[in-house]
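Do me a favour: review this protein, sequence plus structure tokens, and tell me how the chain folds. Record follows.
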Amino acid sequence: MEFTRDRALKLKPMRAKQIVAVIVLLVVALLLVVPPLLNGGVKVTLSSTTSVNADHLYLTIGEISGHRTDLSGTSAWQSISNKSIVVDLTQADISETVALGNLPLGQYETVRVRVTNATVIINGTSQKVQLDSRLFAIPVSFLAQFGASTVITLKVSPEIQKTTDGVTLKLSFTGVSANPSP
């Protein structure tokens, strides 16, 4: 009888360790599984509204992010993509996907586009372009939803100005969401 009691006492700590191990595994599993479920897919497309008088007008976009309505400050900006992509704005109304990403679920009010470079090719000659601005905040209301993908269409109006100092590019953006918020 003494032997059984000693053996039972030795098993109790083992069960406690097993319970702790199971709890730790559940917490780790939740941390791996839940965050992707709390995100909504976002696709951003870009097209030029007007043709430009150039062989090519290459625009390099370095970052696209969305601004949540329920947050403020820098934490309100959520990255959709920080992958650099080059688009040619020469032709009007040709849509190109510039970002595929995920955002935390919620309501968004603005899309921010950071342009890192612009180059124009006129009569076969490449020229670096001076940008009027590099950071653009475009009002677009959209909802990142569970299990749904939101498509945001950005329209850009490029305006090339030749000066004695070189070529300057002015850009203006508008945006529309495929699932506008209520």
In short: The chain has two domains: 1-37, 40-177.
